[in-house]
User: Fold 2-oxoisovalerate dehydrogenase subunit alpha from Schumannella soli.
Amino acid sequence: MLADAAPIQLLAPDGTLVRNAANEEFLPRIEALDDARLIEFHRQMVVVRRFDIEAGNLQRQGQLALWIPSLGQEGAQVGAGYAARPQDHIFPAYREHAVARIRGVDPMRIIEMLRGLSHGGWDPKAHGNLHLYTLVIGSQSLHATGYAMGVALDGSSGTGDVEKDEAVLVFFGDGATSQGDVSESFVFASSYQTPQVLFLQNNHWAISVPVERQSRTPLYLRSQGFGIPSWQIDGNDVLASYAVTATALDSARTGQGPRFIEALTYRMGAHTTSDDPTKYRQNDELAYWGARDPISRFETYLRARGAGDDVFADIAREAEDLAADVRTRTLELVDPPTGKIFDNVYSDPHPVIEQQRAWLDAYERSFEGTEG
Assistant:
């Protein structure tokens, strides 16, 4: 773990609240959260983890071509996901299952995409402005920066009304920071002072390459060389993720320019189901991060606040219900109609697309009544 100082932390691994000079500006955001919202943080982390495990099982049983687990990174994702306001636009990588659920995406849309039954997954306008998963490493940072430039040019940020002003949030991993796209996004974000937050989930492994081999200095320092202020946080602390991201987004939306967050977390599972992490990492490393699990520490915190067994039993039932529902619906999936390939190519009807759709339909009908 590369750090030149202790990362910002609001909740210690033992579940106790941390108060110090480094986090004092963020504490008021946590103090403003009521019990219902705090329990919702926990609910999302637990339910998404159970979905994640079930999806991995489905892939192993031949129901999916691939699965991309998020096990261990739920704290970073849930905190940042809830920090975004409804008008904000979010550009994920491919592991942000918790953020997708928070923004209203049915988990089955992710299942369908990784089963090869859709060409993107969902319409961002109908799903909380969550844009599509991006498998090309780091490219979403450019998409987000370009969108944020448009937000600024349209005058949709910087008016002083945080309830209406828009901001853009983009997620990527430590491996993406070695891609030129991310550095290019820093250039344009800084030059145009875009209303965006670049959120790095440093899970310490770019497939089998450790972060120490990618950078000799903490990654949160990289954006500072481009003039973008940054923080390094405990990414397994859902409260720190929420408070720092909310602060960063509100700074961006009010015209103060882009912000960068490095969330130190850990990928407890494989990079994808095509990967075998036992070939390149040690059990003691897993044990170290397992003791810092975002869900167990937050349960300890909630119990200290008075949450009873019934709360956690209810969440566990919801998680099992979702897993069962996803399994049932996955086993019922059928191949989509051929014409689906033309849907959502353009946001508005397009004559060329309609011509191609008509041609394909006629071509397929030409085989009706033939044998073989």
Notes: DSSP finds 13 helices and seven strands in the chain. The two ends are 60 Å apart (CA to CA). The domain at 27-336 is CATH 3.40.50.970 (Rossmann fold).
